[in-house]
Design a protein that fits this description.
Low-confidence stretches: none
Mean pLDDT: 88
Structural class: mainly alpha
Order of helices and strands: HHHHHHHHHEEHHHH
Amino acid sequence: MSSLTHLEKRTFESLLNMGGGYVLDFTDRSFATFFRDVANVNIYDDKYAVAGTSKAKRLRTFWETEPDAVVGKVLKEALAVWTFMGGDQKSSSYQASERAVARLLGQPSPTPPAKDSLDSEAEFLKKDLSKVAVNKLPLESSLVAILEARLKEITQCMVAGSPFAVVILVGSVLEGLLLGVAVNSPEKFNRSTASPKRDGKVLAFDQWTLANFIDVAHDVGVLKLDVKKFSHSVRDFRNYIHPYAQMAGNFAPDKHTAQICLQVLKAAIADINGERGS
């Protein structure tokens, strides 16, 4: 499997517009041709469909299973296609992706990394979020009751030493939470430049992915930058709900993984309630 980090994967997913199952503007035929020409790979082989059959899911399985050199070669050409389509090479996302490709290929980094102002995992876990109040969420009471019940169950799973259950439950609560916020502020979420579109039209909320909700929630000021960053890690973890995807990704969550996920959820609730300072 490649050594792509969760943050690097998320950056590529954003650049390659993978949220809706697509990859850039590739058709099924051009996607197959791209992989064949670049890496002599049959991307429609069954082994790349263990997590799903969409182009995005096949690409995710590809970078989970193939070595750095092969993944780096494909992603380098994908960035070239993105640039040809009008992508801004001066953007921080592009430069981060370019550095990731260079690392995968064992080449010198083409651009120096910017100073990371975001919290490390250790710093994020140290934040005191013990007084987060679910019952203060600006959502309909019936939804709040469900979220409270699931949060209680998450706590029980933490005590019982069931990290995978924590990961899956946190992902479900986070998505329900952000959907509830979006439903209460549809104009704000739909007007975001980060909102997912098809043929120039914003997709209905039931077609948004958790990644979409996270990006738009940050774009409109609902989630702070640290929560956006770590929420995408939760989203990555939750994608291993499929046993074959977990097997392909060699994913084995532990207590630390569960702690990060729970802290992300608490921080998201605090952000929505306006309980965290700038």
